[in-house]
Structure formats: C-alpha cells, structure tokens
Design a protein that fits this description.
This protein is of the alpha/beta class. It has one domain: Rossmann fold. It is about 40% helix and about 10% strand. The protein is built from 11 helices and 7 strands. α8 links the parallel β6 and β7. About 40% of the residues are buried.
C-alpha cells in the first residue's frame, strides 16, 4: 500500500465516517432494496402465498442502526425490518425461505411472511401483535443487565405502535432500570391507512421518551449517514450503562401497507415528494462525490447481489414445505403428544 493511499484512509471526509463503513452501509442498503423489490415481484407472480410487507423507501432506518452491531447484540424487529435482518447477517436463502414458508426457514414455516428472525444471530422472530417485540426486546435488555454483559438491544416499531399500552409499559420499565436498549421509531406517516396526525397529539413521537426519563430525538430517517451515527452514539451510551434512547426516524414507505393494499388513501404528490428523498440515491451521491463509488463498481455490486438472490430463490423453491406435525415443535418444553389415527382403536 502506498503512502498516498494510507493518508487517504485516515483523512476524515465530510461525513465523519471511514470509507469502509460508508461502503459497507451502501452495500447493505442496496442489498435490502434489491431483495425487497424482487420479493414484491415474486409475490405478484404467485410464487409464494399470503402477502408481502415491503420496506422500500425506508431502508436507512433499519440498515443504519444495525450496521456494526455485535453478533451477541439482539434485534427486536417488526414486519418491515428486512434491512435489519440482512444487515445483521441473515443469509438471503433464509430470508426467502421465511417468506416462502419452507422447511429451511429458521421459523420452520410457522410465521407470517416478513417475520424474519434467527436465534443464532440474535434476531427475535416478530409477532403479528403490534409493538409486542418492544416488550420482548426490553426483557432481553434486562437479561443483559442482570448478566452484567455490555450487549445491547435494538427495538424497531412504527409510529402507530407507540399507541399500544404494552409499548409504554416497556419504555417506562427500561427508563426506570436504565436498560441497554435503543428504540427506533420508523415514522412513515401512516399506520396502515391511519395518518400520524390521527394517532397522537404531538408532532414528534420522540417526545414520548421524556415521560420515561431518557433522551429522545427526531431525525431525517432517509439520511443513512445521520441515522447510523445517531444510532451508534445511542448504542455506545447503552453499552456504558447510561440507559435507553428513543430515535424517531422520519421516513416513508413507497408502497401500500402490504402488497394487497392499493394505498389509495395517499396522494400522488405526497408519494413523489418522498421518492425524491430516496435514501439509496442520496447515499450513492455521497459515495460518488468522495470517489468511493463509481458507475462500474456500482454495477458490479448489484450484479453480485442479483446473483446471490437468484441462488437463494433456486434453493428455496426446491425445498419442501414442513410436515403439519411441525406446528407442535418448539412450542412446549417437552414434545407434544400428537394423536394419530393408528394410535386409536376406532
């Protein structure tokens, strides 16, 4: 390595982040966007059942906080955290298997689509009950504190989830005990079809942290660099034993609540306004200006991602669905006695 290249590595750029982190954030961001769009297409092709919850447009709110976490740290996600799942290291093969409900999925085909999780990687399988993962994540943070570990928890939810009673109880508990958890509120302005103005009498949902005795902040959730830096600071604060932080990320989902939602409650002007704030394009521009990314390098990154996606689909679609009896496994501490016809005298 030349002296010139060494100097380039240690000179801070305008973002305040090293080049390898800026590029790593970008790769996770593009991988999330590309995978998400492909899954939308697969659903419309009838390649898997149920529905699909896209996170296109708000990827920075999950990639930014998750990037750089330890394997031992825990994520408590909701149904739109594909970016957190990918960034934490869940292989695409498992991501697709979960949506397809195949036997190679970490949840063994038990969960609703987009309930990504992996016990080995510290990603809790979400529940369909809104904001319930905040309660479980808070419990994990309490466990870390009792075990005297400096691991942290990231809890994700939408602004609509802050209306649930259990959510408030969790944050109150975390504030009292100064638990090592960072709460990430993804305010995409809509809780399904209910606008945020009909959900609370405050403009900034981060103000709710004041009631529980810890800091809250509202930021631009489509600025990947800003989200990563603020979340990193909050994570370090939690590791040091200084308690929780609530970060509200203002963002926007481009599509409906799910793929079966036409989202006709939103105006075309509102959608176009937010598409101009695309987090992928914004981060690409920064990398291009800094000389970290070129058109050729961008194309190579996307090609590698697309190849990984194709391989994951191929593997997933050759896997079988799990046997019905699998529903009884991992539910009770002892195996559930399945009653079969051959076991009866009838």
């Amino acid at each position: 390595m030349s002296a010139k290249s060494v100097v380039k590595k240690i000179i801070p750029n305008k973002t305040g982040l090293p080049e390898d982190i800026l590029l790593g954030l970008y790769i996770s961001l593009v991988k999330t966007r590309t995978t998400d769009e492909r899954l939308r297409k697969l659903f419309r092709q009838g390649r898997f059942a149920g529905t699909y919850f896209s996170a296109v447009g708000q990827e920075a709110t999950t990639v930014g906080p998750t990037f750089g976490l330890r394997k031992e740290d825990i994520i408590a996600p909701s149904h739109r955290e594909i970016g957190a799942a990918i960034t934490k290291g869940i292989p695409l093969e498992k991501i697709f298997a979960q949506v397809y409900a195949r036997s190679n999925s970490p949840d063994k085909g038990k969960s609703h689509p987009c309930h990504y999780g992996d016990r080995e990687l510290g990603v809790i399988h979400p529940s369909s009950t809104v904001a319930s993962q905040s309660i479980v994540g808070t419990g994990c943070a309490m466990a870390f504190q009792l075990q005297k570990k400096d691991n942290v928890v990231l809890g994700f939810f939408g602004e609509g989830g802050t209306s649930r009673g259990g959510w408030h109880e969790a944050l109150n508990f975390a504030g009292i005990h100064k638990l090592p958890i960072v709460y990430i509120c993804q305010n995409n302005l809509w809780a399904e079809s209910v606008p945020s103005t009909k959900q609370a009498g405050i403009e900034n949902f981060s103000e709710r942290a004041k009631a529980y005795g810890f800091p809250g902040e509202t930021i631009d959730g489509n600025d990947l660099v800003l989200v990563h830096k603020r979340a990193y600071e909050a994570v370090q604060r939690a590791r040091a034993g200084d308690g929780p932080t609530l970060i509200e990320c203002r963002t926007y989902r481009w599509y409906g609540h799910s793929e079966i939602d036409p989202a006709d409650y939103r105006s075309p002007d509102e959608i176009e306004h937010w598409k101009k704030k695309d987090p992928v394009i914004r981060h690409e521009k920064i990398l291009m200006e800094l000389g970290i990314l070129t058109v050729e390098k961008r194309a190579a990154i996307i090609e590698d991602i697309n190849q990984e996606i194709e391989e994951a689909i191929k593997v997933c679609e050759t896997m079988k669905y799990v046997d019905p009896e699998e529903a009884y496994n991992d539910v009770y501490s002892e195996a559930f006695p399945v009653r079969r016809e051959e076991d009866t005298d009838d």
